[in-house]
Design brief:
Blueprint: E1 3-4, H1 15-23, H2 36-55, E2 63-66, H3 69-81, E3 86-90, H4 96-102, E4 108-110, H5 121-130, E5 134-140, H6 152-161, E6 165-169, H7 181-184, E7 188-192, E8 203-207, H8 232-244, H9 253-265, E9 269-271, E10 285-290, H10 295-304, E11 307-308, H11 324-328, E12 339-343, H12 350-373
Parallel strand pairs: 1-11, 3-4, 3-5, 5-6, 6-7
Antiparallel strand pairs: 2-8, 7-8, 9-10, 10-12
Helix pairs in contact: 1-8, 2-8, 3-4, 9-12, 10-12
Length: 374
């Protein structure tokens, strides 16, 4: 039996999307060309733009296609910072593409988070009040590592109260939290196609028409903000994926089944992030520390038995540096490399869940035996 539990890293290409992509494989024309082959490709892109806009309740002219979620983050953040005098206030548990983007900015300040990863609202308010330049707040809607969902409505209202601008990284949240830009009122946000059953290599930037950005790549495509011939198949996959995307399977039941087994049957284990029943935790996310077990060794051993999990963000999986998310949340350094993350779809069968639980217990016992012998 093979059970894939790393859906926060990427998702399987949906069947409807796969069939659609096969039907448009012959659309090889350059979308910028004026003849018929180019027009066919352009039509595919604009159809996807319309479907993506509908998916987040936006207007098509506010949707920009990028090469990835990280590219969307970079375009939104760097593009705004280079165009405006602003002070960047950012979440210390944001995605690495955000943290690396802001680290060299003269006017940049990390916000504070509590042990569950939630933004410290009192600290945010103080920084908004005392910012030397226009506040530009950058946070992740939900952290895909420890599952924390931020109170974006309250944060956005506060930012706008102090005449600031807010950017939301929605890549981790959009698979399980429907997004309506009319209600969130975020000035900019980004996400990626492959977290929704589309192809890798396609991201989205939404921005209000009043926001001006410096281009990420100079050219004529995407209203001049990100030049280069468009990834037609990637964009097409996103358009089809969101057209058929359903939130009906979003449930915490399967996540809770695994979590309860671990906490009751594997000693020295504890949950990281918001409590399991908290509405502020992503329903598909389970981040567990298992003491006296190396997380990477456990991940590899589980894979041998057909269970795929991760030790955190895929963008950090090849780095031995301590997770910035876990450090910011105050996790003991001795426990940081003893963690694994499991992210479910909600469609797993009972047989699959039982296989995961039994296999996990067996692998932990094996590794602890080896550790004890050493």
């Amino acid at each position: 039996m093979n059970v894939y539990l790393d859906n926060a890293a990427t998702t399987k290409l949906s069947e409807n999307t796969k069939k659609y992509l096969i039907s448009v494989l012959d659309a090889f024309g350059n979308p910028s060309s004026l003849y018929s082959h180019g027009g066919k490709s352009k039509k595919i892109i604009e159809q996807a733009r319309k479907r993506t806009a509908d998916f987040i309740c936006a207007n098509p002219d506010t949707i920009y296609f990028t090469p990835s979620g990280s590219a969307s983050n970079t375009l939104g953040i760097r593009g705004y910072y280079q165009k405006h005098d602003c002070c960047v206030l950012y979440s210390p548990i944001a995605h690495k593409s955000i943290l690396k983007c802001v680290k060299e900015y003269k006017y940049a300040c990390p916000l504070k988070v509590d042990a569950f990863g939630s933004i410290d609202m009192k600290f945010l308010k103080e920084k908004l009040k005392t910012a030397a330049h226009k506040p530009f707040v950058v946070i992740d809607h939900a952290n895909s590592e420890i599952g924390t969902i931020q109170d974006i409505h309250t944060i956005t209202e506060l930012v706008h109260l102090y005449h600031g601008i807010i950017y939301l990284d929605c890549t981790g949240s959009i698979p399980s939290i429907p997004l309506d830009v009319r209600k969130t009122d975020a000035d900019m946000l980004g996400f990626s196609a492959h977290k929704l059953g589309g192809l890798k290599g396609c991201g989205v930037l939404y921005k209000k028409n009043t926001i001006e950005l410096e281009p990420l790549i100079y050219g004529t495509q995407e209203q001049g903000l990100i030049g280069g011939t468009e990834n037609i198949l990637g964009i097409a996959s996103l358009g089809k994926a969101v057209e058929h995307y359903s939130y009906s399977s979003v449930s915490a039941d399967n996540r809770d089944h695994i979590c309860n087994f671990i906490l009751h049957h594997i000693s020295g284990s504890y949950l990281i992030g918001p409590p399991i029943l908290s509405p502020n935790r992503l329903p598909h996310n389970l981040y567990i520390c298992i003491k006296d077990v190396d997380g990477e060794s456990l991940m590899l051993l589980l894979d041998m038995y057909g269970v795929q999990v991760s030790t955190g963000s895929a963008c950090s999986s090849r780095s031995m540096e301590p997770s910035a998310v876990l450090l910011a949340a105050g996790i003991e350094k001795s426990d940081i490399h003893s963690c694994i993350r499991m992210t479910v779809t909600g469609k797993e069968t009972k047989a699959e869940l039982d296989h995961v639980c039994e296999t996990l217990k067996k692998c932990v016992e094996t590794l602890r035996t080896i550790h004890g012998e050493n």
